[in-house]
């Protein structure tokens, strides 16, 4: 994520496209989409270099709240191999079921856009949690956090990898350091180098 921003102008600059084109992919609040129109858009949560993240309600899962990620199409346009790698990689990542890895559920294509859903985590990132601490983090808390991250990363390495692990990609369910969830894994390496340079 780009600091949980909702800036379509920055998105257009990163992908070197007109602002009007970037804003076309904005989903309207209240719209339904996905297989059987099961997901209803509640809000736009963030805009990242690779994806837009929406807060949605899943009507086929008792109204569960989910994070819907829309993959931006621009970095697939230059290479069919990137697209094939992405689809293969996501199919592998869907198999992961680990307490410290945020589970990927549905994956589908709609028009020229690709979507996937993950369980919505009500809480903060590890980065946000660290900034809120008034004092130095205790050794026991640091160990509790690090052990969970290592267990999650070890599981990921059996499948793919993370490629961009940092405190902003580690979530604390209900702001609890005993419930670490790693997210945003396995896709960053697909983005062309020139897009990374513009993002930087």
How far is the N terminus from the C terminus?
12 Å
Number of strands: 9
Helix/sheet category? alpha+beta
Question: Strand order of the main beta sheet, please?
Answer: 1-2-3-4-6-5
Strand coverage percent: 25-35%
> What does the main sheet amount to?
6 strands, antiparallel
Low-confidence stretches: none
Instruction: Estimate the helix proportion, in percent.
Output: 25-40%
Mean pLDDT over the residues: 82
Shape: globular
Radius of gyration: 17 Å
Task: Write down the secondary-structure element order.
Answer: HHEEEEHEEEHHEEH
Tally of DSSP helical segments: 6
Can you walk through the features of this model?
- The chain is α+β, with helices and mostly antiparallel strands and 200 residues long.
- The strands form 2 sheets. It has a 6-stranded antiparallel sheet with strand order 1-2-3-4-6-5, covered by helices on one side. It has a 3-stranded antiparallel sheet with strand order 7-8-9.
- Strand 5 and strand 6 form a beta hairpin.
- The radius of gyration is 17 Å and the shape is globular.
Question: Which characteristics define this entry?
Answer:
six-stranded antiparallel beta sheet, alpha+beta, 30% helix, 9 strands, 200 residues, three-stranded antiparallel beta sheet
